[in-house]
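User: I'm new to structure prediction. If I give you an amino acid sequence, what do you actually give back? Let's try with this one:
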Amino acid sequence: MKILVSICALALLLSAATTLAQPARKPNIIVILADDLGYGDLSGYGAKDVKTPHLDALAAAGMKFTRFYANSPVCSPTRAALMTGRYPDLVGVPGVIRTHADNNWGALSPQARLLPALLKQGGYHTGIVGKWHLGLTSPDTPTERGFDFFHGFLGDMMDDYYHHRRHDNNYMRRNLRTIDPAGHATDLFSQWAIDYLAERRAKPQPFFLYLAYNAPHDPIQPPKESLDKVKRREAGITDQRAKLVALIEHMDDGIGRVLAALKANGQEQNTLVVFTSDNGGQLSLGANCGDLRGGKQDLYEGGIRVPMFARWPERIPQGARSERVALAMDLLPTLCEAAAVPVRHEIDGASILPALFGQNQPVVERDLFWMRREGGAKYQGQDYYAVRRGEWKLVHNSPFEPLQLFNLAADPLEQRDLARQETKIFQDLAAALRKQLQRAGAVPWQKTKRMTK
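Assistant: Good question. You get back a string of structure tokens that encode the predicted 3D arrangement of the chain. For your 453 residues, that looks like this:
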């Protein structure tokens, strides 16, 4: 009897040792990116006239960041930072990539290594559904830059949510094939994401899905039923605000369907889901950036601070909140660390995975930069920057305005310019900015012959 017990005990110990020796199953990863969503345009971030129950529930089931930033106040640069873990001007995307050469301000560097390519090396299947906005032609389409699968829109914005054209160009693709689907773009992207999840359901391979909506970017075109619902509920709301609220709520409904499919497929438990926005909301269209100064196109807080939250059941604590300062470029090393994929080349981002797990992660002492290059009468093809060191922020909100210095701890609304009082801090941050400009000046951003073939 004693021998039998000893044998059983030994078997249990061997089984436990084998289990411990086996590597943890890699998580599926979903990154959901909204387009021009203001910091204050989710009910979970203080909006009183917006109902976003699905996104609020996602945030409540994980960790919500209150000081998370896009890398730029406009689309393409932040997307480049998210995909490369680098400052966007260091990978050739200081401004918006557009159809016409005379209004195009970026070209993704051929040397840039993108998140999907890194995750593929770690055994992942990689898919993008929705807006790409990092290249309109070969060799800069998604499946040529690391994604296994693409179902979405190559361009910057749609001139119409139902017809899906930009300057009369059809940029809708399924991989490399041009398609012309019917329906509201938000509904299409939500359904295509659901289809992707269903296709991956029976596969043992982990997946990375980048779900990039073009909502709530203009034109503000919510479905009629969504708009009618908002107008019935919100007495006295303006037509402009009602349309934007309806477009945001329509996106929330679509995300809710995607998350429901994830759960129904049995994929939820081992999936890390991250939600954020590419920049702040456009104030002229009725966006709410909370009580922050500025909005889209501005390097004040309203143009770059965005919602961000993440859920990973049993890994990220529920209902958690973080005031840690982090940027979109930090997501690449974070996701790679979660996927146990080493990053062996130079990046500018820093992983925040320990913070997401609720651990006491030391703050990384680093200068943070934001930038944008733009044309037109307001910018004349020049760039403008902001740099932050601790709670000090130096802002150049236009190429033709003086630099301003703010202390965000004492003045979070950026109302008191201390440039003349704090001259030493001003000079130190200006010197750091000059070094960053020198780094970026070595990287071409105009289209080359290689990129236009």
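You can read the tokens as a compact description of the fold. Here is one thing that stands out. The two ends are 78 Å apart (CA to CA).
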